[in-house]
Amino acid sequence: LMPPVGWLNDPNGLCWYKGRYHVFFQYSPFEANGGLKFWGHYSSEDMISWRYEGVPLLPDSIYDCHGVYSGSAIAEKDKLHLFYTGNIKMDGDYDYINNGRQSSTLHVESADGLHFGTKEVAVSCEDYPENYTCHIRDPKVWKEGEEYRMILGGRQKSDQGAVLFYRSEDLKNWKFDSELTTEKAFGYMWECPDLFNVNGRSVFVFSPMELIEDTDGYADRAICMLPEFDEKTCTMKFPENWQLLDCGGDLYAPQTMTDADGNRISIAWLRMPEPVDGIWQGMFCLPRVVDVQNDHIYFRVLPAIRDGFCKKTDSLVSACGECAMIRAELKEGESLEIGGYKIWRQSGKVCADRTDVYPSGAKGWLHAETPQLKEGDLLEIFVDPNMIEIYANNGEYVLSQAVYGLGETFSYKMEKKPEIYLWNE
């Protein structure tokens, strides 16, 4: 998914409602380099064929006049409920961290998933804890037993990232429950928190700002971990280990939903350094099924999408203008090149370089790599004109990157010839 025109960033309000999947998104329709935020909207019956539904939420109230910021959706009692951050930025001499900004959590309902009613304040910025800056945002709401829970990302006045938990019995009246941070700062702000269960394990996904220092790439990264979460007391204990959501460096602000079959699906924003053809900027990765095995979080392409690439071909020349999937058993020292994008195996890692298909001087990770993998693991590589996603060892690690000017050449130095598949219309 990409914007019809203009700018796209965070996925919002992912849900299955009345026989369709709904994906809302942060949207600046008038500026390809970003600007005042609206919510755009796509819907689908199968997460393959999408229909653009327009712009359902505009910055048109006293609570969100400077931006309809990120949030989530919950389908309950035949209605779709959206929760999001309404942004107000005052004129004056402010630092907009500790003063000059108001960010309240807003609530709006729909009976059809397309048209939304009156905006209401669910949690006012005036009711947030005093030890936080003005930066509290990105509500994710879910149901736990007979109660509803909300998690919000925040920035404490000590410049430490944190999350806040709230609970409600009716989706209208919310009560502060608890907060969580780390002893030492782990990024100064935690954006887009998401907490859910897979295979009996709690999975926590969030995006710490400036997690990585001294880099020419993005310092803000999306990560995931398997914490101990007590559902009754709404308390969480961090594990020692965590994973990058994606090794490529571009993916950020992921959000998840449960599909019609009970799978947990993750979609994330791919950051891009400049507009494509001066018209649009920002896109989403392919929908990914989240799985937990042996204390590790796996991300796999939605099976219906993977299985749709079944038209086998001997050449990628015809595919670079559309989409393709490559299956390759990459061994140590072997490599392949896709229109100037290079992939190889070195020291047990899958490595990639996009120097030749990325804007000169643009901010971003030109070289990226996975942690060590077993020898000869199968790679599934999905090629789009502006994005390449590499799934290693059945989703044990994923490496996704934005690309520009992808050529039509395809070459490889491998014992076993890669298999190339186009989408079967």
Summarize the SSE layout with pairings:
Elements: E1 6-17, E2 20-28, E3 38-44, E4 50-57, E5 68-76, E6 79-89, E7 101-110, E8 120-123, E9 132-144, E10 147-156, E11 161-168, E12 174-181, E13 190-198, E14 201-208, E15 223-225, E16 228-230, E17 235-237, E18 243-244, E19 251-258, E20 264-270, E21 280-281, E22 283-284, E23 288-293, E24 296-301, H1 303-308, E25 309-313, E26 324-329, E27 335-338, E28 341-346, E29 349-353, E30 367-369, E31 378-384, E32 387-392, E33 397-402, E34 410-413, E35 419-423
Parallel strand pairs: 1-21
Antiparallel strand pairs: 1-2, 2-3, 3-4, 5-6, 6-7, 7-8, 9-10, 10-11, 11-12, 13-14, 14-15, 15-18, 16-17, 19-20, 20-22, 20-23, 23-24, 25-35, 26-31, 26-35, 27-28, 27-34, 28-29, 29-30, 31-32, 32-33
